[in-house]
Amino acid sequence: MEIWQYILMLIGVITVIFVGYYLIKKLVKEIEKVHHLPIREKGLTAMPAVPFIISETIETVVKLGLRAEEFKMAKAGLSNEYTLDGVTQSAYTFMYDTEEIDVGKEDRKELLERLHRSDEKEFLHKELLNPHLEKASFPKHADKEQTFTSFFLDKPEDFTMSWTNYYNVYRDGIKSYEKEYAAILKDPKEATKQFWPTIAENGLAYNLLILQKVQGDFLEKVKNVFSSQWKDLLEPIQKQGLLYAIDLTIFNQFEASQVAGFDRWTPGAFVLLEQDKNTKELAPICVQISKKDASASQMYTQENSTDATWIFALSAARTAVTVYGIWLGHVYHWHIVSASMQMTMFNNVSKDHDLRKLLDPQSKYLIGFNDALFLLWKTIGPPTSFSTTDSFLQLTNAFATGREFFGDDPKVTLEKFGIRKEDFSDKKDWDRFPIAGQLLRLWDVSEKMATTFVETTYATDEDVSKDEELQNWIAAASNPEEGNIRGLPMMSSKKELKAVLISLIYRVVTHGNSRQMRSLGPALSFVANYPPCLQKTTIVAPNDTNFTKEDVLRYLPNTGTIGSMMTFYYIFIFSAPYEPLLPLFGNNTSLYFPEKEDPRNKALEEFRNEVGEFIVDYSDDNSPLIHQWPASIET
To answer: Does residue 55 sit within a domain?
Structure first.
């Protein structure tokens, strides 16, 4: 055989090898590809894609069972007795009737069986999209026999029933907070005084950056909604630059649901607050409560309302704040957007890429948890009016309409809403809006980490532009048929890459505060402070003298709803994270990059140190659980 024939044969063999390698690589990548729910088929075209991984969902459902074992002691600690409507029982009995502590065992078992026998694509279309997004099956209370979970509370102090004796939550709450919190349902002055501080000091896990200064384009909306109060009451305050608002009228688009024989309703709320120019304190002065039937809306001021109807208006507004915090402040910002970014990264960036080395340790568990939440909605979801996965997705899609990726960043939000540090600092920085300062602190920590990574990994802007896998990731994340995230940059410079990575790292690390005891309460677990729903849908007229403070209690969550809320909270608080952000054996261990002296590892160690310092400062006591802060977004 001639030499040229050997050369041609060798070229042919090499070609076959390369083609085979390419095809195998492509096949492997297709097998590993993360799919997403076909929500666009249901008209949900504004929100980011919702990824689905059947193996991760199975793993999460199993781990949820283990989590249920972990929080048994917390539920067993609901042992204090209460008397409601002449009936005396333990808090646990009122909140869960005769149910076992792990009420979701059967639902998890049934779901696991369906997951194991299903093909992923088949499950996405036939199992998940249709029956489980549209239906929710809840037990109905019998007409003839009242269950313990159907009692409404007799007095404000009864809301302490959700404080478990485990971890001394009840003891510490009774000692420090019972009278203060109960006062919001007794005294309209206390309800007014506590309204803003409750949000500003305790809303970190709910990402409650919802306050806006009334100025610019927003001014016209406020003038239109509050036209009857504008000239005499509101305009003088606005002209002094002291008028602020919380606009949660997004909930007007959605009807109440009925669960277990009771209404669950999220009212639309529009609250105007006046700031004291000397102390920087904020207090509500005018509240609109509304619903889908616009003719039913009512406007409340302290002058036109009775004591009871003013307390009702503020309680309704607190409900809207809570539901915003659960589904939009927390789940949309941190779960939904992050999961779509992670999915498109998995599909386009190889595991040995430096971007994956940075982001993989914080990108575990989220997709599986989101899917488990959608499939176990009635078992682990909080008891809001969004009682099906479908209704939640409708809300999320409405919120996402016109929303861009960087619009979720705290600096962007605060600037857009006209919130400045000097306007909310009295004795120290941000002491009139503490969660804003806390979120900005976590932003700065994330910024340092992302900046060092980009500067070390990419020498020039051209290196960013030439990174094909990075370009493919961002293109896929922006593609309406893939990630469907608007507002991502072209990725032509280090500055643009830093902006994306800061935001993504921030979302995941900030979510970790949700597992701290401080984030449970006792403020959040005193459900009158943060009601997940109202249980009647009639909007009370402000001058209704027949409406009493006791009537307000018939709107607020009943014993069963309180129990459902505690089950939701306990999943996060009274169980250990799968992997803590701060390694058990020191912040200089479990490093992301091979060379220990890599500047990116040094930045990682400093990142962990600063988050650890944040946890210490955020905790209420001198023994913070620093390893309770998870590395990824998880249950």
So the answer is: no
Percentage of the chain with pLDDT > 90?
Answer: 80
Position 603 pLDDT exceeds 70: yes
Same domain? For 388 and 522 the reply is: yes
Residue 118's identity, in one-letter code, is S
Residue 45 lies in a domain: no
Tell me: do 15 and 160 sit in the same domain. Answer: no
Give me the pLDDT at residue 524, please.
95
* Closest-CA residue to 561 (of 83, 104, 138, 206): 138
Sign of the CA dihedral running 372, 374, 377, 383: positive
What pLDDT is recorded for position 141?
45
Element (H, E) at 288: strand 282-290
Cα angle 429, 629, 327; round to 5: 80
Element (H, E) at 5: helix 3-32
What does the pLDDT read at residue 116?
86
- Residues facing residue 36 across a β-bridge: 51
Neighbours of 13 (CB within 10 A): 10
Q: Name the 3-class secondary structure at 359.
A: helix
Only one residue has tokens 């506590």, namely 194
CA–CA separation, 558 vs 153, rounded Å?
7
Q: Which residue has 């304190």 as its token pair?
A: 281
629 and 611 Cβ atoms separated by less than 8 Å: yes
Together in a domain, 408 and 556? yes
pLDDT at site 100: 80
Binned at pLDDT 50, 70 and 90, residue 53 comes out as very high
Confidence of residue 30 (pLDDT cuts 50, 70, 90): very low
Question: Among the residues of 417-488, which ranges form H helices?
Answer: 434-457, 461-466, 468-478
Task: Answer whether 57's CB lies under 8 Å from 127's CB.
Answer: no
Q: What is the CATH number of the domain that holds 338?
A: 1.20.245.10
How do residues 433-484 score in pLDDT, each as one tens digit?
999 999 999 999 999 999 999 999 999 999 999 999 999 999 999 999 999 9
> What is the domain extent for residue 9?
3-32
Pairing type for strands 51-52 and 257-259 reads: unpaired
Q: Residue 90 pairs with which residues in a beta bridge?
A: 81
In a domain, 20, yes or no: yes
In a domain, 12, yes or no: yes
Q: Which residues have a Cβ under 8 Å from the Cβ of 241 and sit 6 or more positions away?
A: 213, 215
Cβ 79 vs Cβ 165: under 8 Å? yes
Task: Say yes or no: 478 and 623 in one domain.
Answer: yes
pTM for this predicted structure: 0.93
Q: How many domains does the chain have?
A: 2
C-alpha–C-alpha distance, residues 482 and 255, integer Å: 30
What Cα–Cα distance (Å) separates residue 484 from each residue in 264, 362, 392, 402, 504? 31, 21, 18, 12, 16
Half-sphere exposure of 267 (CA within 13 A, CB side): 28
